[in-house]
Amino acid sequence: MKALVWLALACGALVAVSLWTFWMAVRPPRLTIPGTPQDYRLRAEALTLTTRDGVKLAAWLVPAAGPDAPFVIALHGYPANKADLLPIAGALHERFSVLLVDFRSFGASEGRTTTLGFRERADLRAAVDALAARGHTRIGVFGYSLGGSVALLGAAEDPRIRAVAAWAPFADLRLLARELYAIFWLLKYPFVELMVVWGRLFLGGDITRPSPEMAATRLTIPVQIWASRDDDQIPFAHAERLQKALAGNPRAEFQFGRGLHNERAEDFERRLVEFFARALGAGDTLSPGGR
């Protein structure tokens, strides 16, 4: 009888800890990252985007220095906001217009929970909708970490996205969760399964599916993946999985280096600009088709 009681207590503790860690993950604190476009001498228009499920998102539209430039949508990481990508917007804006967006529940956007990519696909679609409504057709997406994973997911669903560059995206949320729960040894497996259960119960679906890896297999547009073998947040195995998923895409390229998650290569900005210039035809007209 005592054994059953201890077993029940252990199972109850497992469920409670799992629910607590899930809730902390989907409701992180809103970080205040200093910086405005004016701090980087960027002229910007403040926009409010509305997703198809009714969430209002805060955004900055930074026009390019030259006319008729393609657009790059910039998606931040977790937990951050659009101000975190202002240096990258500054590097892009000579040749591209940039739309920086706060994901739901981050920055100045509405929303009480993040879904780690599941509903953030609707945030990206709202950004593309806003640009399409203004007549823009040459649209690429740059995503940082979580933003990179959302960029891959969104591009697989929206043919208006013509190119994707992603810095340290995760390939599969279930795999990432197992890595984060590794300290619990074999208990990491029930923790991950409970995460899926909590997602269905509180967020309305399996937040781990489709995975960015699954989405990547469908992409034939230009894709650029940046990853580090020393990344302290997204293990390099995710980049290897994405490389395998994109093996059939001749327009996929990979920039693998060294350094921690937020340590970018010295030539990162130059290579990013060159990638989008090739993919979106900065300064010329992009031919139709190409997905």
What is the chain-wise order of helices and strands? Answer: HEEEHEHEHEHHHEHEH
Write down the overall mean pLDDT.
93
Outline type: globular
CATH superfamily of the largest domain: Alpha/Beta hydrolase fold, catalytic domain
- What is the CATH top level name of the largest domain? Alpha Beta
Give the proportion of residues in helices.
25-40%
CATH hierarchy: architecture of the largest domain: 3-Layer(aba) Sandwich
Structural class: alpha/beta
The DSSP helix count reads 9
User: Going across the major beta sheet, what is the strand order?
Assistant: 1-2-4-3-5-6-7-8
DSSP strand (E) fraction? 15-25%
| CATH topology label of the largest domain | Rossmann fold
Unreliable segments (pLDDT under 50, ≥5 consecutive)? 284-291
Question: How many domain regions?
Answer: 2
The CA-CA distance between the termini, in Å, is 63 Å
Report Rg: 20 Å
The total of beta strands comes to 8
The largest sheet, given as strand count, sense and whether it forms a barrel, is: 8 strands, mixed
